[in-house]
Amino acid sequence: MTDTHPLLGRTAVVSGAGRGLGRAISVALAGAGAVVCGVSRNAEELESLAAEIKAAGGQAYAFPADIRGSADLDRLRDAVLAEVGGVDILVNNAGNLVKRPVVPLPVDEASGEKVGQPGSGPASVAMSDEEWDSVLDTHVRGSLHLVRSFVPGMLERRRGRVINIASSSVARSASLTVSYQVAKGAITQLTRALAKEWAAFGVTVNTIAPGHFRTSMTQALHDSPEGQAWLKERIPMRRTGDPRELGALAVHLSGDLASFITGQTIFIDGGETL
């Protein structure tokens, strides 16, 4: 291990790795020397990620899979372990977002009355059970599946890092994203519970709670003048985050110098939750 490659010899599994923050984390971990196993339902995005990392001199593999159901999990686990031998770092990043109210809201949208952030959909249409389940299954069930697949080896070796990606919304609230906030709240509590359970075995578990970063999920908000004004008004630093900043935090939490940090939710939000 060197100062410039603190994760040399380590292997990381990153879910939702093909784009957005998952991609930024994957690139950062690879740049720090880790072998990255990218997981996503989108094979094309994963192949693009692996090509980008390899072009920069790193090592990466693409593992298309749907982590929400059990059908793909045994195949995914066996394929990853056959390729890399063991996993040292697990980043639970996969997520989705449905902007709908739990029940229809009596909003007169024709008059300009709005609910939610700029670009939110109509508040008069309630979220379906299928949409609710989709969000909870992706964030919570998917994370649990990956934990069960890759953490037993960490416990046996008495060394490992689990990083769960939540959201700064766990410390505040936002309209029309109740399912997302419930899912991220569950992730932060999962972090605390598992950190306590695994602390004696050398496996740390922490949450990164990002604020506003430009991703495919939030691009419409970032691209509109109304959205830009809304964001700058909310964030004391008057800017949104650079994904490389989040990647650097993930690298630190994955390394040896973070071995005494566990059970924590670390906000990276420009002061929005202050």
UniProtKB/TrEMBL annotation:
<dbReference type="InterPro" id="IPR002347">
    <property type="entry name" value="SDR_fam"/>
</dbReference>
<keyword id="KW-0560">Oxidoreductase</keyword>
<dbReference type="Pfam" id="PF13561">
    <property type="entry name" value="adh_short_C2"/>
</dbReference>
<dbReference type="InterPro" id="IPR036291">
    <property type="entry name" value="NAD(P)-bd_dom_sf"/>
</dbReference>
<dbReference type="InterPro" id="IPR050259">
    <property type="entry name" value="SDR"/>
</dbReference>
<protein>
    <submittedName>
        <fullName>3-oxoacyl-[acyl-carrier-protein] reductase FabG</fullName>
        <ecNumber>1.1.1.100</ecNumber>
    </submittedName>
</protein>
<dbReference type="GO" id="GO:0004316">
    <property type="term" value="F:3-oxoacyl-[acyl-carrier-protein] reductase (NADPH) activity"/>
</dbReference>
<comment type="similarity">
    <text>Belongs to the short-chain dehydrogenases/reductases (SDR) family.</text>
</comment>
